[in-house]
Structures are given as structure tokens and as C-alpha cells.
Write a structure and sequence with these properties.
Number of strands: 2
Order of helices and strands: HHEHE
Strand content: 5-15%
Shape: globular
Number of domains: 1
Oligomer: single chain
Number of helices: 3
Length: 68
């Protein structure tokens, strides 16, 4: 699974990582914790990545978002 490879690679570089598997979880984590960067998949279940990005921006969250 692609997310597992990414998590392992970033952890080896000493990054702290949270990974979620749907857009609703992404909203909960992203609106609760402070992140330096969010890697975002457009095809997330429950709440797609585009809608999640729009929700962050509409609620004045300005962390960098990168589409993966």
C-alpha cells in the first residue's frame, strides 16, 4: 500500500506522521492538531480530498496542502 511506504520513508527521516484513511478523519485530525504539511489524496472516501481542502480553507486553516 502506497501510504505504508510513505509513512515508513518519512519515519526513517524522523518526521512525526499521522495517517488517516478517509476525509472525515482527515478533517478531525486537521482541525484538531497543528500540522506543518498535509499530504492529501483527492479520492478519499466519505469526504473527497477536494472537499476536504475547501473545508480547511473555508475555516481559515492555512497549512500547506500537497496533493499526492
Amino acid at each position: 500500500m502506497r501510504v505504508d511506504v510513505l509513512k515508513k520513508s518519512l519515519a526513517e527521516l524522523n518526521y512525526a506522521i499521522n495517517a488517516v484513511h478517509d476525509g472525515e478523519q482527515g478533517w478531525i485530525y486537521g482541525s484538531t492538531y497543528t500540522y506543518d504539511l498535509i499530504l492529501l489524496d483527492w479520492s478519499l472516501p466519505k469526504l473527497d480530498g477536494i472537499s476536504l481542502c475547501q473545508r480547511f480553507r473555508e475555516n481559515d486553516y492555512h497549512m500547506p496542502l500537497v496533493r499526492t
